[in-house]
């Protein structure tokens, strides 16, 4: 199996660190960032297969961040997650990533891992 590289972006540091650790246990190469700027800096220095973005980040939405990230790497795949259960957030995330690539917090790590694998394997 291809070594899948994942970039996790969420302003909740405890959450994103835990997700990265749990994905690493499952064989993923997982990096994380708590700000859009640090995520973009990581992306400029390394290639990722999938980015997992929180819909609501301080100062920028995950949807806006996706656009900036796609400018740097047009082949990057995206999954969105949110703890904000509004219909508006769901519609925005679904439109940007497809309903099947949108997760509610707390994130089920096995569901996330399956989505990441599926998205990474789309490119093969």
Description:
With 124 residues, the protein is α/β, with parallel strands linked by helices. The protein contains five helices and seven strands. The chain has helices at 13-25, 36-45, 62-72, 87-97, 109-122, and strands at 5-9, 29-33, 50-54, 56-57, 60-61, 77-82, 102-104. A five-stranded parallel sheet has the order 2-1-3-6-7, with helices on both faces. The chain has a two-stranded antiparallel ribbon with strand order 4-5. A hairpin with a 2-residue loop joins strand 4 and strand 5. Helix 2 (36-45) packs parallel to helix 3. The chain starts with a strand and ends with a helix.
Characterize this entry briefly.
With about 120 residues, this protein is an alpha/beta fold.
Shape: globular
Q: Give the N-terminus to C-terminus distance in angstroms.
A: 11 Å
Low-confidence segments, given as residue ranges, are none
Percent helix among the residues? 40-55%
Nearest-angstrom radius of gyration? 13 Å
**How would you spell out the order of helices and strands?**
EHEHEEEHEHEH
Strand content: 15-25%
Number of helices: 5
**Largest pleated sheet:** 5 strands, parallel
Quaternary state of this entry equals single chain
Overall average residue pLDDT: 87
Number of separate strands: 7
**Strands in their spatial order, largest beta sheet:** 2-1-3-6-7
Helix/strand-derived category reads: alpha/beta
């Amino acid at each position: 199996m291809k070594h899948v590289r994942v970039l996790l972006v969420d302003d909740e540091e405890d959450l994103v660190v835990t997700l990265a650790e749990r994905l690493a246990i499952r064989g993923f190469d997982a990096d994380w960032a708590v700000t859009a700027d640090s995520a973009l800096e990581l992306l400029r220095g390394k290639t990722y297969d999938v980015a997992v973005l929180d819909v609501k980040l301080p100062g920028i939405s995950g949807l806006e961040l996706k656009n900036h990230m796609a400018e740097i790497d047009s082949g990057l795949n995206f999954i969105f997650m949110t703890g904000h259960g509004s219909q508006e957030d769901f519609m925005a995330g679904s439109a940007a990533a497809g309903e099947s690539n949108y997760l509610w917090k707390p994130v089920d790590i096995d569901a996330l891992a399956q989505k990441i694998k599926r998205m990474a394997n789309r490119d093969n």
